[in-house]
Amino acid sequence: GHHIISMTSFSRDMIDSILETAERMEPIALGKQRSGLLTGKILAVLFFEPSTRTRMSFETAMYRLGGDVLNLGSVDASSIAKGETLADTIRVVDGYADAIVLRHPKEGAAQLAAEFSTIPILNAGDGAGHHPTQTLLDLYTIKRESRLEGLKIALAGDLKYGRTVHSLCYALSLYGAEITLISPRELRMPEEIISDLEKRGAKVTETDTIEDAINEVDVIYMTRIQKERFPDPAEYEKVANRLKITPELLTDARPELRIMHPLPRVNEIDTGVDETQHACYFKQAFYGVPVRMALLALVLGAIEI
Ligand code: CP
């Protein structure tokens, strides 16, 4: 369909086409070229959880292509505060806009929204579930700053609750990536995802320290411990501060090693790493713009791929 809910429904050809389209969008994303590709189109932005990058890069993407944005604003200022359901909200906004980008704390929320919407739904994160548009910008970053072919990557941090790594590893399996999972035991990648990945042809290994991976991989993808998803705050305290990248740890790293992070970070990447040649997380955040431009153009029918 025209919705973007999960990476599991993307073929490799489809991803490659989106990444190529994003590359052509880059001069427009940078403001160096103008485009009216989405003139007259309206994107509704429904975020029921905090966001800086996803929300603002979707809005920028829409404006850079000549479109407009309609923001629900804070949940408290909307009729959600009076108890309106997600289903009813979607049925109403369906009549106001041409596409809806949705972030919601409940896993499965985007899928549910799609059932009540005649216009495209873009999942911008559903609880600990999926974050497919983040994955596409992650893949774009890997393609631009490292290599997608024959990639060796370590995913580190909160692999249990981290939706960005859940979506990303499904996509990486299409490219036959060698994936090293690094997490505290309590935050391991869910067993069913690991078994899916193996079925899809990925090579997966698990460990609990970053040190050994540094000289083995092309990319280390760090993630924040998802404090807001822990049922018990004491459990969070046990795992907080366990995994950290510092400039010292990178002293003997190969120059080509890239450190990525979906951001926001708490303290899992020392700010001293920012000035090294390895850091590419701020560039990664920028790449959200051309990638989301490509996705919006696609779901709004302005381009075909
Ligand atoms: N990476 C990401 O989703 O960031 P935000 O939560 O700021 O949108």
UniProtKB/TrEMBL annotation:
Binding sites annotated in the UniProt record for L-aspartate: 82, 163, 224
Pathway note: Pyrimidine metabolism; UMP biosynthesis via de novo pathway; (S)-dihydroorotate from bicarbonate: step 2/3
Protein name per UniProt: Aspartate carbamoyltransferase
Family: Belongs to the aspartate/ornithine carbamoyltransferase superfamily. ATCase family.
Gene Ontology cellular component terms for the protein in this record: cytosol
Enzyme class: transferase
Naturally occurring in which organism (per UniProt): Methanolobus chelungpuianus
PANTHER family associated with the record: ASPARTATE CARBAMOYLTRANSFERASE, ORNITHINE CARBAMOYLTRANSFERASE, MITOCHONDRIAL
Binding site for carbamoyl phosphate: 53-54, 103, 131, 134, 263-264
Function of the protein: Catalyzes the condensation of carbamoyl phosphate and aspartate to form carbamoyl aspartate and inorganic phosphate, the committed step in the de novo pyrimidine nucleotide biosynthesis pathway.
Catalytic activity: carbamoyl phosphate + L-aspartate = N-carbamoyl-L-aspartate + phosphate + H(+)
UniProt-listed GO biological process terms: 'de novo' pyrimidine nucleobase biosynthetic process; 'de novo' UMP biosynthetic process; amino acid metabolic process
Domain of life: Archaea
A Pfam match: OTCace
Domain Aspartate/ornithine carbamoyltransferase carbamoyl-P binding: from-to ranges: 3-143
GO molecular function per UniProt: amino acid binding; aspartate carbamoyltransferase activity
Domain Aspartate/ornithine carbamoyltransferase Asp/Orn-binding span(s) in chain numbering: 149-298
